[in-house]
Amino acid sequence: MQISFSDRIKLSEMDRREVMLLAANYNSPIGEMRLLIEKGALTALWFRGKGQIENKLSDKYQLIASTSPEFAPIIRWLDDYFQGQRFNPIQFELKPLFQTTFRQQVWRKVAEIPYGQLTTYGEITHSLQVENKRTVSPQAVGGALAANPILLIIPCHRVLSATGDLAGYNGGIANKAWLIEHEKKKSNK
Hints:
single chain, alpha/beta, Double Stranded RNA Binding Domain, Arc Repressor Mutant, subunit A, two-stranded parallel sheet, about 35% helix
């Protein structure tokens, strides 16, 4: 049985003391990305110099530059993604930093958005309301997406405003536009 993309998101311990994370860089076609792993699980992936992730890393996290082979499956996935191999399932565990139960629910919904397709904050909100049988605000969904530490793999770039605007993206609006166009081109082939 193949494990689905969203099933690989695991809730990590909320009360972290000091955690050592291995760090590596990846040169994508649209800028340098930073990868962090803990015990083989991807904890963060973002565009360097963009968004809030670097600022959120506190003294709880000790980053150690590494060329560990543990990065290999993640780098292969990134290579495949940027080459347009859209149906490449992940073969590694995700353990996102900055998790809460609500963020995890939102990230699972976003992880279900198919390659090359888009949705809105409102559609995710509605889906969560039906699932949880309680009110959820689009702003709360937006906040959860702003806290997403694993860009591309938890594809928050596929989420638009109700009017179809690109709205916010931790990787930068220009990168969001590029990623949407990249997936659109590869989906039409």
